[in-house]
């Protein structure tokens, strides 16, 4: 069956390979898309072509598109939407395209976990799962694991005659706790979940240990990897001896050595032949290994340098052979087999514990109605397959067949990061075999860097080897090698390195012509685009023998060198090509990224860069628990949980929260030297004070204990998040840290703690103790809570990020730092190791002697894991190099550059492109690989005066390699520190700082600047009469200092049933004003009539019943019997509730000094009543202030009080009426309903 490929349209922008990936169909297709080859664009275009085709178009919801992240899924939907909109603009009458736009939001474009969730929600009834299940938070899952583990181990400890379990405990736990066993159970459980049949995989762990004394080790699965390692070491020794023989046979070489070296070669050849024979014979041959002494070479006929070099090569070969003998073949085969037999019950017990834990953990999750992400995959797999009762093999279920019918094609992005469970799911929803299938996979195995997340790159590699370019025999593979991201110089450099480094044995794939990056961009030519390698040569001090201190200094030196280069880039300037404008532009800080393997030393790098004026930022997710503010708050929470903890209590008392000094703490301790510090604190508070200092300390202690008791009460009654926020408020610690250097980040840390507490309590767990224990577990595991600070793309800073974080991104200028830092191989030396193929292996612990030995399976897995680790590191290096668009800098710091170069020299003489397996396998850092590769380049050969094979040395790549003395960088820092020291000394002594610059006058001007209209910042543009009245009454002559202030709202309200129902005085006054506004002045206004009118106001809902009840009817009736009330009723013109707005000069209202002439303030108010009679306009303002009780029998005092309080207000009212109405106010009165008297306002 031929693959169907539509012809590429004329004038298409796609390359032939890209169009093949877009248009091919009819079988499973694997697209090996190199870095920068536009794989996402190709994937989107393939979808668009399928959806918008004029013939045979499919609906978007008939495609299953699986992405690696939710962000990628959202981006893909957005791209498809934009493409559909463009196509719809060309074909506006297409109902099919309109339908696609409506279907797009519901299309199956998501992560595989999201797809699994949809499957489970649809078929939940096939599982023992509540339909209301939810995905648990990571915190909840971790806490639940702890509970289940404790329950499991408690059961095991309580079983009688459980000798096997106690043997496991004795072998794999410490004296103080069984934490190591708990970690082993959880690790093995989580590892098993990456297998489609985790229970079967666990049950099969013991199969490797089914041996007896007659078993030939050669037949065991583990033997293959040990034999592979032995073959590699023997080949390396043979190569070294051959090279030594070549030197010995040179004209001035040590010819007497030649015969001995030939004997060595014969011995190695015999050992290589033994590799295919029985294991016992190979063991005996290695045990008999013996290197004879070299004969003497004296005289002028022999070159001393060649003698030393020949000896050195032979010594290296001897060390390899002896290490092979002493490590891998140290024990007799019968001993290996006996250890494995004795390990079998141990492994059986561990596997049984893990299987029991899995059952209990699933039951606990099911009881709570929760699932985790691993469950999503396994539940989905359970729904999509069934076991054939006859053959026992897995077959697609009816649900899987429905999905196969639903989806015309299954498209998978980032296929290289798929695991075995995910692969099983994909195989169940796709149709047909590889030759007739509909699975479209895109990825780049060279960028598979997530093996630590149990991704399986071999899935991609197996298909890549099996599929063919034409797809005739099965699936089709398509290579997208054209890179549209980077300059030619970056691609040539990357190709030069990986053609020598990446191979089948070490690297898991061959970097052949198909894998090499092809230049596809169209950058303008430039001379300074070659990658630069900068090796800092730092002479290590004799006393400095700690690796950590060495790495610390290396990071600082590299940061200084990068700072120097970045300054050159920005100031020289360096131009980068802007594709949006099609023109070059000056490089900015945001065009630069510093890539590191881990963020361990990122804070030092940021410090060094910022010290030289370079803005830098990193998404730091570590160091959170070490932050002072978090340490203090956690100590306080520990004390609230249990005050009988001396260290947290002392830390809290000594902290800025309570400020006890060391003398006060000593005073407290002396009150009870033998009890806990909390008991001493309580005793100290009760004892009689002998000095004033003791009395002061006792008051502080009493205040602390009183607060502590309140907090402990709240911890029992309220939520944890509420407690933490109350701690922030009560101690004002949140505000305090905000005023410290880095205050914003410190406050963000405290908010993160509060958010984590809320997140914790959103789970099924509660309580301060459990939360603190969870935090302690996080710290023990080395996890952190630090949230990365997101940076916008436009923020002009140099970014520091891990290589993993940079995957999928691109940057004009890339610095790759820390290349000499050793690979992280600690996991290889763990007491136990796990492997998907070989299973579980651990050290054998002698039950009586308590001595542990490595077992044969452990050595095999160590060997296999080391090669896998090197392949992963090689791919990580590839990802780092391919992030650069225009310029690449590689930095390393070594103790002795000359020695490093000497180690690389031997690689120069190697024939062919690919370096020998053992050379690449012996690498301890990226620099070991890069150095050995570059020494073979014409630009690197000058470092050691070596000459490499012409085909390698003449590669078109160009390199700039420099050895930078560390003294140059240290000198710059020393000069800066000397200057800083002088500045600090001057500040301490109160003298002028001995530093001047051209900006001194400008700085002084800016620091002493004052706003010329500062007084006007206190003036409102609009103000009510009431506010003006209040500020004059409160501040008098200080009116210019007044600023409106609103008191804080109460944090908590009383419950409604405890709140009083009575109206406030202000509410009563408002009710009376409503009545006075709406009374019919023509009707009789006695108490009965007024009561009737109020009742009508309640009916019209102008007044509530409570307000009507609160109105003083007698006081209103009294007003209308007085002279002023009778005049109002008889007036020819009445205006009630008269609003006004009046512009007045600001200097008049607030005092003229400092006010700008002509500045006006808009004054607003409402006048209660204005009427006109034969005497003219009369203005009345009603007052309900309580004055009779305050000024009993003193009506004149009451009148003066009202005038002083409301005189300003009345004068402004009068002015408003006279200016706006252009009429004179003849009389102006205040009427007090409390007392029923009139106050005339002049």
UniProtKB/TrEMBL annotation:
NCBIfam families in alphabetical order: addA_Gpos
Gene3D superfamilies linked: 3.90.320.10, P-loop containing nucleotide triphosphate hydrolases
UniProt keyword list: ATP-binding, DNA damage, DNA repair, DNA-binding, Exonuclease, Helicase, Hydrolase, Isomerase, Nuclease, Nucleotide-binding
Positions annotated to bind ATP: 33-40
Gene from which this protein is expressed: addA
Residue ranges of domain UvrD-like helicase ATP-binding in the record: 12-487
Recorded family membership: Belongs to the helicase family. AddA subfamily.
Family annotation (InterPro entries): AddA, DNA_helicase_UvrD-like_C, DNA_helicase_UvrD/REP, P-loop_NTPase, PDDEXK-like_dom_sf, PDDEXK_AddAB-type, Restrct_endonuc-II-like, UvrD-like_ATP-bd
Protein name as catalogued: ATP-dependent helicase/nuclease subunit A
Cofactor: Mg(2+)
Subunit text: Heterodimer of AddA and AddB/RexB.
Molecular function in Gene Ontology: 3'-5' DNA helicase activity; 3'-5' exonuclease activity; ATP binding; ATP hydrolysis activity; double-stranded DNA binding
EC number: 3.1.-.-, 5.6.2.4
Gene Ontology process terms (BP): double-strand break repair via homologous recombination
GO cellular component, one term: DNA helicase complex
Domain UvrD-like helicase C-terminal intervals: 515-808
Organism placement in taxonomy: Bacteria, Bacillati, Bacillota, Bacilli, Bacillales
Reactions accelerated catalytically: Couples ATP hydrolysis with the unwinding of duplex DNA by translocating in the 3'-5' direction; ATP + H2O = ADP + phosphate + H(+)
Record PROSITE patterns: UVRD_HELICASE_ATP_BIND (PS51198), UVRD_HELICASE_CTER (PS51217)
Protein function: The heterodimer acts as both an ATP-dependent DNA helicase and an ATP-dependent, dual-direction single-stranded exonuclease. Recognizes the chi site generating a DNA molecule suitable for the initiation of homologous recombination. The AddA nuclease domain is required for chi fragment generation; this subunit has the helicase and 3' -> 5' nuclease activities.
